[in-house]
Amino acid sequence: MVKSYKELKSFLENLKGRPTLLLHSCCAPCSSHVILLLKDYFDLTIYYSNDNIYPLEEYEKRLQEEICFCNKIDEAIKVLYDPYQEEDYNQAILGLEHKKERSERCYKCYELRLEKTAKKASLLGFDYFSTTLSISPYKVSSWINEIGERLEKKYSISYLYSDFKKEEGYKHSIELSKQYGLYRQDYCGCKYSKEERNGKEQEN
Description:
Layout: H1 5-13, E1 20-24, H2 28-38, E2 43-48, H3 56-73, E3 78-81, H4 86-92, H5 104-124, E4 128-131, H6 141-155, E5 158-159, H7 169-180, H8 191-203
Parallel strand pairs: 1-2, 1-4, 2-3, 4-5
């Protein structure tokens, strides 16, 4: 089992054929570097499942940006998406609403989105599932991989190790956002991260 980014790179170089991968994405900017990294190794499908995003207009804006970006990169890359289910997120983080970013609230958010991805990948017969979340320096990659490995066993589908901020992946995603004119949001997505960001701006 892959346990580090170095091992992931070696795994990709030795991968046989083109297995199918359902890749969860939170937004086009975060997915940009990851798609370019993985699309030559996998038959790639993007899965947009982000009940945490607030408000609905933001959810829809990020979804459309994801679809447009994938069409520009490779029209063969499909984008699957869930209907917006804000109540699923509210239930997942119940009692943790006012924890800070990178807290238990975020862990539950990762878990919600990754479990939906694993279930969808298993249902549709994908070989692997993974997520672009780890591209962000604000996300805890060890938590993401811990959850992914647990779901791999639960749903009997292989999880692809994720720590895509490595080797300046995050910096490259910023460069790609500029290159493709992508809408780049200024908060993680949930209303609590938006409130936290607004509070910091007022302090400054």
